[in-house]
Design brief:
With 282 residues, the chain is α/β, with parallel strands linked by helices. It has 2 domains: 232 residues, TIM Barrel (Alpha-Beta Barrel), CATH 3.20.20.60; 35 residues, no CATH class. Helix content is 43%, strand content 13%. It has 12 helices and 8 strands. Strands 1-2-3-4-5-6-7-8 form an 8-stranded parallel beta barrel, surrounded by 7 helices. Helix 5 crosses helix 6. The longest helix is centred in the middle third of the chain and has 17 residues. It is elongated, with a radius of gyration of 24 Å. The model has no long low-confidence stretch (mean pLDDT 96). The structure holds 3-methyl-2-oxobutanoic acid (KIV). The site of 3-methyl-2-oxobutanoic acid has 11 residues, from strand 6.
C-alpha cells in the first residue's frame, strides 16, 4: 500500500517532518524509495534538469505522463505526485479536471500539484470533487516566471505576505491536501504553516514548514548550470560521474577494457571448426 494523503496529514498532526524529493525515472525513483522517502514529486522541473529548457513553460502533458509512468514502475510504497504542466489547467476548470485525470489514469500517480492561489482555487475545488487529491504551490511559482519577471523571492512586502496567506487559506478551503511554499521568507512560511491544518512543504522557505522538497539533481550535485541558494549538496555526483566516465574512456583507449573476465569465449570446438574457413563478406 502506498503512502496516502491521510498519512501525510497525520504526519503534520504528529509533528513528524515530511521529506519530499523529485524524481523523473525508474532507477532514481527506486533509489529514493529505498532511502525512505515517503513522497516523490515528478516535477515539471524536468523541463530544466532532464530536457535542458531554460524554464518549465515548454513542458507538456505527454512529457509528464511519460516520466510519471517511469517513476511509478520504480516504486511500490511511495506516494507519487504528478505536476500539472503550464497551460494544462490555467485556461479553464474542465481542462484542469480532464488533465489531472490523465495524470492519474495514464501516469498512475496518486495526486497532482498545480501552481497558484485564489485564481486557481475553483479549479482545485473541481479537481478534488472529481476525486483527485491536489497539492497547491505558492510563492515563487516557476510557471509564472514571465509574469514574476524572474526567479525571485516572493511575499517580501506586507501586502504580498497578506495575499500569500489569503491564497494559502483559499487553497486549503478548496480542498488541497498539502501546499508547496517556494522562495518565501522563513517567517512568512511559518505564519502560513501555523494557520493551516494541511502540511506545508518548503523549498527555499525555511525550517518551519511541515516538510521540505528538493530537486534530485540539486541535492546530489548532478546539475551544474545553476546552484540555488536554498539547495544543500549531499553529494557531488557530477564529479563522480565525470571521473568514472573519463576513466572508462582511458581504459577503452588503452585496450584494458574489456578484460578476459568481462568477455565471452567461443566454445573451443567451434573455434577449431572455424579456423581456416573462408568467410564470404556480403
Ligand atoms: O517542479 C518541481 O520540481 C517543483 C518543486 C521545486 C517544488 O515544483
Amino acid at each position: 500500500m502506498r503512502v496516502t494523503i491521510r498519512d501525510l496529514k497525520n504526519m503534520k498532526a504528529r509533528g513528524e517532518k515530511i521529506a519530499m524529493i523529485t524524481a523523473y525515472d525508474y532507477t532514481s525513483a527506486m533509489i529514493v524509495e529505498r532511502a525512505g522517502i515517503p513522497i516523490i514529486l515528478v516535477g515539471d522541473s524536468l523541463g530544466h534538469v532532464i530536457m535542458g529548457h531554460d524554464s518549465t513553460v515548454p513542458v507538456t502533458m505527454a512529457d509528464m505522463i511519460h516520466h510519471i509512468q517511469a517513476v511509478m514502475r520504480g516504486t511500490e510504497k511511495t506516494h507519487v505526485v504528478g505536476d500539472m504542466p503550464f497551460m494544462s489547467y490555467q485556461a479553464d476548470a474542465a481542462d484542469g479536471v480532464r488533465n489531472a485525470g490523465r495524470l492519474l489514469k495514464e501516469g498512475g500517480c496518486q495526486s497532482v500539484k498545480l501552481e497558484g492561489g485564489r485564481p486557481v482555487a475553483d479549479i482545485v475545488r473541481k479537481i478534488v470533487q472529481a476525486g483527485i487529491p491536489v497539492m497547491g504551490h505558492l510563492g515563487l511559482t516557476p510557471q509564472a516566471v514571465n509574469q514574476l519577471g524572474g526567479y525571485r523571492i516572493q511575499g517580501r512586502t506586507t501586502k504580498a505576505a497578506v495575499e500569500l496567506i489569503d491564497d494559502a487559506k483559499a487553497l486549503e478551503e478548496a480542498g488541497a491536501y498539502a501546499l508547496v511554499l517556494e522562495g518565501v521568507p522563513t517567517q512568512l512560511a511559518q505564519m502560513v504553516t501555523e494557520r493551516l491544518s494541511i502540511p506545508t512543504i518548503g523549498i527555499g522557505a525555511g525550517v518551519h514548514c511541515d516538510g521540505q522538497v528538493q530537486v534530485f539533481h540539486d541535492l546530489l550535485g548532478l546539475f551544474d548550470d545553476f546552484a540555488p541558494k536554498h539547495a544543500r549538496k549531499y553529494a557531488n555526483l557530477s564529479e563522480v560521474i565525470q571521473d568514472a566516465v573519463s576513466r572508462y574512456v582511458s581504459d577503452v583507449q588503452a585496450r584494458t577494457f574489456p578484460n578476459e573476465k568481462e568477455s565471452f569465449n567461443m566454445k573451443p570446438e567451434v573455434a577449431q571448426e572455424l579456423t581456416g574457413q573462408h568467410f564470404e563478406t556480403v
